Every structure is written in C-alpha cells, then in structure tokens.
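A quick aside before the break. I want you to see a complete sequence-to-structure record at least once, exactly as it would be stored in a machine-readable document. Don't worry about memorizing anything.
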Amino acid sequence: MKIEFYSPTIRRKEMDAVLTAMVEDKIGPGERSRLLIQTAKEYLRFDYALALRSPAIALSLALKALDLKDGEGVLLSALSPPYYSHVIEDLRLTPLYCDASLSFPCVDRDAVEKALAEKGGVQARCILLHHTLGFVPDTASIAELGLPVIEDISQSYGTFFTGTEGKKGAEQAEQKEGGPVKDRVQGVFTILGLEERDMLTSGGGALLFAANRRDGSALRNYADIPGEYCLPDINAAMATVQFKETARNMERRREIAGIYARSSLRTKHRRFIPLEEGEYNNYAFPLVLETGLKDVAAYARKKNIVVAGAFERTPAGTGLCDSRRCPAAHSLSLRTVLFPLYPRLRSQEAEWVSKLIMTLP
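That is the input. The structure line, written in tokens, reads:
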C-alpha cells in the first residue's frame, strides 16, 4: 500500500458541520462566516478580521490597504508561495526577493538589509513575511527596520498564538488548546490561509486580520466588499471546527515528528532548528539532503512512500529570482525534501516512513 505525501485531516466533526450548513441552505457568505471570525478571535485575539475566499485575495487587500504606488517594492522571501509574486505583479508592484539561510528557511534581518541595498532604485515600501514550513522568523528584529510588515502564519499557526492580551490571555489560550504562549505577530496585517495544505483548512479561504484597532480600521474599509470575495458558510463551518480540533491534531503531529526525529539522527542529512527550542508546530518534517532530491524521491517510491520537494514551486525553485542574489534559497530548493506528516497517518505508516528516513541514501 502506498503512503501518500498528504492527506487532509477531515473527521466526522468537520463533515457534520458542513452537512448542517448544507441542510440549512446556508452555503454562501453569512452567519457561519461571522461565527468563524468570532471563534478565531478567541484564539488569535485580533481587533478586526475579514473571512475571504483565498489567501490571494487576502494579500491583495492587505497590499491595497497600505496604499502602495505603481512600481514600488515589496520585500519577500525567495522561498515564498508562488501566488505572492503573481499578486504583487498584478498590482503593478515590484517583488524584491530576500535570501534564506542554509540553516533556517525564513528570511532574517541581514537578508532583508541586503535586499534593500540591492534594490536597484526601486523604493521598498513593505515586507511580506512568510512563516515557511511553520518556522517563525525574528519578526521583531525585521520590524525595527521601519517598513510595514504583512505576516503570513498559514503554516505556523500552533507554533504560537497571537494577540494583545498579554500574559493572562496567552495562558488562557495555552490552557484551552495546549498551545504555545508568545505574542509575536508584529505585522500591520496578518494572513491565516485556510487552504488544503495550510495548518488549518476550510477547503479554501483565508482570514485577514489586524491585531490592534488602528490597523483594524483600515480593514473595516473593506467591510462591504462583494460576496464573491467572502468566504462561503460551507467553508467557514469546516474552519470553525478546525480551530477547536487544533490541540488534538498538534499532539498527533508531535508524536509522528518525534519518531522521525529519532530516525534522522542516524542519517547524514540535517534538519532545520527553530529559533527558540521547543517552539514548533510540526507542520512538516523537512530534511536538507546531502544527496540529490531525485535520488531520495526514487528511493522512497521503491518503498511505496511519496515524498515531495519542499521548495520546487517557490520563486527560487522556478528560477523566478536570480540564484546569484539568493544562493541559499536556490540551494535549499534543490535539496530540501518533505516526508508524510499529517494527523491521519496511522502508527504503522509512520513507522514505515521512519525506517525510510533512517536508511536514506
């Protein structure tokens, strides 16, 4: 039996919520979308949010809210999702790619400063900060540069909880969901994608939120956007359950990742290490290979296990950004592999993947 690389974590609770929405004939944007925002606010502690049909729409609205002018620059990682570049260019803005680190997949302040020095006359106006593979960059240090930051926590939800309620609010969130405790979102706006392979899923969609009242007022200008931009209730119903199932799903991810980590110690390949030890949601299990990605993928196929290149479709992986300016990101795009890691993975399957990791060429 083949072990697929990915399987969405959809259980009976999610299915029941979707069926209830269908029975009530409430599948377009409406009350369940409002309930999702209310539920998300309990976990994320933001001031104001929009529930939208896609992360691309969320990013477009966030950039428009910053009132950027034609040709101005947006700094982003060379390992960002591919839709970033499309949205930036559709708005007639200029992408300015930042390199990653060979030991950590997110950009740091040095990489941003280097990109600013090489911007070629383009005026940089904001930083789009992706929490790649669930790892969290040093956002506070980057925010000190004085440019507005848009953060994307689609893959890092669960690594930390956001908000402005201080220690008491963080402790309550930790007790409620068993989650990490730091308030680390520094962005003017934050995107939480709800796509199939995001940490939480509604089958498609995103939340765009602002943590404080000042930034939230800018999003309120979009309160009356057409329904075609808004998240349908049938998707919102699923996402609401996903928030409530976070602790259960994260615990299973921790168990599987622990098995893989022990096996990885017996290989010559290396792992990324979070900036702060113990703070990782186990969104994925990446290894940076000493051998070729194709060789490892072929070896896994012989074992009936599907693996995937972590960064094949990123700007670095597709050649959209110059490899000479982003050499680390280019190298990682050729050598970083992901193994099956999702809550529905059975224990026997996790053991088979573990043995694969242990015996990698």
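Two observations worth writing down. The chain has 14 helices and ten strands. Residues 295 and 361 are 8 Å apart (CA to CA). We'll return to this after the break.
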